[in-house]
Amino acid sequence: MEKKISVRSLEAFHAVVTLGSVSAAASHMFVTEPAISHLLRSLETATGLKLFGKKGRHLDLTPDGRLLFDETTSAMSALSRLTTVADAIRSAKHGHIRLVAIPDVAEYLLPDILCAFSNSYPAIDITVSVAEVHRALGMLESGSADLAIAISDITKNYQSHAKVDSHAMVIGPKAYFAPSDGDTHIAKLIAEPYVALNPGSPFRYALDQYLKQQGLVFTHAIEVETQSVIVKLVSKGLGISIIDAIAATAEAHQISTRNLHPPLCWTYHLLSPADANLSTAARVFSDFVANSWE
Q1: pTM as predicted
Q2: Which range, 53-62, 78-87, 134-143, has the best average confidence (pLDDT)?
């Protein structure tokens, strides 16, 4: 069989058999009767099968034609399903997003976004991975994630679809700060017991560089892996700390907070590889996040 079977010829074949005549099929497909006859002949040529025989003035399916019709019915159902799925994908009623986020974003920034997005687009599935920034960007570059939320210097390797600014805040146990206290100068904290993030996190790196610029060094009372653990330890009086304002605001019921002076700021970006063709679902999510972060 050298000639490919066209979908249009299968549609004509299915319409003739289902509706009972060439004229009915032509009316259904909005073409002429000769056009239907041409499509039937092209299908017979492509398949190498005799599909119809004459029975009086009517077309009658041959045994081979009957077998092909059964398969054609299944194929037309599959095509119909494909059309439905394509419509759903195009209208963001179907899709899957692979998202990776750094731990603090996953814990404090992402839940509200995912809740609001899922309420608006309940048929889009999202798989969330949590990874430190270097691994998160590696997943993005390897194609194992569609989008990443991370602190990153924007380079030619990435496209930023949305961003939100944040800054550092000093946290202490409840009532640690007097009501009249304003921003807390970093130099006043050096003598305090300090709870720090483990080395290797982007936040710890940013803070270490900041302290170096100020000519200061903390003596760490304890080092832990997440800002949520820092909050718990600080709330129990084990020391003070400096954490992301997003985390500090979310945990304000457990601790007291003040802005840091001089300020230490950074930006979270929703990223994709610069040359990536995003799916409709990923584009919709990107637009949603951008509007949420405005």
Answers
A1: 0.71
A2: 134-143
